[in-house]
Amino acid sequence: MTIVCKNLIKSFGEPPNEVIKGIDLEIRNGEFISISGRSGSGKSTLLYLLSTLDTPTSGIITIDNQEPDKLSVEDLHKFRNQHLGFVFQFHYLLAELTALENTLLPARKNGNQDEISVFVNELFERFDVNSTKNKLPSQLSGGEQQRIAIIRALSMKPRYLFADEPTGSLDSVNGKIVMDILTKANSEWGMTLVLVTHEEEYAEMAETEIFLKDGLVI
Amino acid sequence: MLFLAIRHLLSRKRQTTLIFLGISMGTMMFAIISGLQLGMREFIVDRLLSNTAHIKISARDQSVDKNKMTQRFYPGGEVINWLTPPSGKREEAHILYPQGWFNRLSDDPAVYGYSPSLSMSVIISKGDTRYPAALTGVVPKLYEKVLDINRYIKIGSLDVLDNGGNRVIVGDKLLENLGAKVGDNILVSAGKGELRPLKIAGVLSLAIEEIDKTLMIASLNDVQQLNKTPGQINEISISLLDINRAQELAHLWSLASRDKVQSWDEVNANFLEIFVFQDIVRITVTTAILIVAAFGIFNVLSIIVNQKRREIAILQSIGYPPNMIMQLFLIQGVILGFSGAIFGLIIGYGLNLYIATIELNIHIGAGNHLIISSDPSIYITGFLMAFISAIIASLLPAYTASKMTPIDIIRSEI
Description:
Chain A is an alpha/beta fold.
């Protein structure tokens, strides 16, 4: 159960501007890996490639021995739904749904929201946002919104959790709370955590630190 | 996706309500305009079919032909230069070989009934009053089988003409204009020197003033005697088992005869042309309203798709494939089209019921209120028009949304 990438290259535009310039990487099952680097170093691009949201210009990525590129659109979305969780810098909660409804969205796709709601309710209690269940995102603080977004990412108990600067829009107190949740998801439930951050303090919490410069791991 | 689509709609109450009302207004207008137009049309067609046969065979007028006259009077081939060339009708038009038609019609399984008649213009005298009228001589038993005339007879029945006896049934307006009543005698002239007394034995009303103020029906024998043309007829009215075959059979029969054979819709072509024009106006008005509503759906959904880019990105990243994203927006159009159409048609139906009760200062048929059609096809057509236009209007925004990828959206947000 690993993510393996070989000679990963990603370029944009014409003439091609290489943002990722041939990265080889292996992420083991249950590992916590942080990716950091300056702005424009390619860290978010690498995360999107690893998490199937983007496709490489060349090179190979395999997740659990499967190449996401070769999956059909349906299968790729099913794979994301069941095995991958995403936390972005912005919460991206659906404004017209309550916090609870937002967290059950991945389960609703399969029609098993009743089954998943037991676990989701546990998470609400555990992350101290029980009182927000029936509130709309606009009625929540920034920290609460991000915690709800994390519950949504964890709701299907994914094997891989991808977090793209999840603390980037939070103050230090809420940032610590979010990092605490993410590290617990890795240590207690064995989820593989791939974190992109520019904050050294959080990057150092990972078992493996990767630093990118100009599209290369240094 | 229904759950999410409903939430999307409810979260924009004002826009949703406006589009909903736009579609409702379109279908409501369609139901009302169609109800009015088709109601009047049904009334007119009903009246037409009540006093018009499915197929009418009538005698062709014969004009005097200059060449034939020359040949007849100068068979030697002399060159004749007429100072006043002969012209005009040769004789009163009549069907030359009625028995041939009767045999043919009796044997045709498509024919339900046929009725020979002799129609002519007459002058009625009553006291000092002279009045023009249209007298038709019929065989009552045959006439009843072709035209539902008894329905319009207010006093008496067609049977009173069975045994001849110089009796006549007259239009109610004619009776009124003559100042006569049932049982009175009137003198009728066919313009051939003789004034024949006819007894008013009944009154009918087709509720079409132009007809009711000239119409007279008598027995065929009496009219033939008045016209001094025994055995002669100038029209055969035919009813068919299937009215839809009228054009086809009229065409077929006309090929083998010099008489004029016309189906009911050919005879009333002018009316039917008005109906076509009415249809065009009705569909144009409704289409215009629905196009505005459909543009509303298109615009609002396009704006929403743009506003909801982040949501589309997150939905795709948590496993909602493009076809489900398309469904999300398509369902919104379907809900608006469906509910707007149903609501508009219910309101339209209610208003139609109300309009039908409004009393006017005009007489239409037996009453004085507008005749509104409640033909189910109006409501089915209205629903389909609104529903389909809503779906078409939603397709492009829904397709655009389905083509967005999470990575493109996320990158554009950074």
